[in-house]
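User: Please fill in residues for this 226-position structure.
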């Protein structure tokens, strides 16, 4: 008798709960990193929850007061995957964060021990193997891990999300508004060349301003080719 194949159930890592001693201080720190503030809810003086999300991340962090959470500083080696560890490090430093020098692990990724970290990028330039580290004000530790390309089988196939008509109409209205500003100051062009990168950026989580910059940049490349 043939056994029916069972489809795997989607289980997405959504939230990591951090322990912090000062909620306002922690909130200010992560907002300084440019992370999106999703929620800040309070009920009286005994309960408060704050949620922030790194740019383009599908997982968020939560901390607060009166919630079930670890003690401050217990979170360690939380990973932030970045395309370029040097660029990410420079960005954090510009935001006033104390970040380590770039390093790699001599005996294997995440190897423990006092001498495990070696200064400098991975000598072989391998993806997943170059890092930098920093801490939040409560000593919760983060690692920047350079992942310019993922190994085969390490990416889920994304299913297109259906967009309801009202949302699509609003997005098109917004796109037309921003394109109108571009059109007034630039040479004749095909509107769809500007719309496409703008819409794509917005659907990937970019702000309207970031999407407009992406569309302008794409138009420069298109016009150069022509």
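Assistant: Residues filled in for all 226 positions:
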């Amino acid at each position: 008798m043939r056994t029916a194949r069972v489809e795997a159930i989607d289980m997405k890592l959504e939230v990591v709960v951090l322990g912090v001693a000062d909620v306002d201080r922690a909130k200010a720190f992560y907002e300084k990193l440019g992370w999106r503030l999703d929620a800040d809810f309070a009920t009286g003086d005994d309960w408060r929850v704050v949620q922030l999300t790194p740019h383009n991340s599908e997982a968020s962090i939560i901390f607060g007061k009166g919630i079930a959470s670890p003690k401050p500083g217990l979170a360690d080696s939380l990973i932030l995957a970045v395309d370029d560890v040097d660029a990410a490090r420079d960005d954090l430093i510009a935001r006033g964060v104390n970040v380590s020098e770039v390093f790699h692990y001599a005996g294997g990724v995440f190897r423990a021990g006092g001498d495990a970290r070696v200064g400098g990028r991975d000598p072989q330039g391998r993806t997943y193997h170059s890092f930098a580290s920093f801490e939040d004000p409560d000593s919760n530790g983060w690692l920047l891990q350079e992942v310019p390309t993922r190994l085969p089988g390490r990416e889920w196939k994304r299913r297109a999300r259906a967009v309801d008509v009202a949302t699509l109409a609003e997005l098109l209205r917004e796109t037309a508004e921003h394109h109108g500003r571009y059109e007034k100051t630039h040479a004749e062009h095909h509107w769809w060349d500007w719309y496409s990168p703008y819409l794509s950026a917005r659907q990937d989580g970019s702000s309207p301003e970031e999407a407009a910059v992406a569309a302008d940049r794409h138009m420069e490349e298109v016009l150069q080719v022509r």
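For context: Strands lie at 15-17, 36-43, 47-53, 60-65, 78-82, 103-105, 117-119, 131-135, 141-146.
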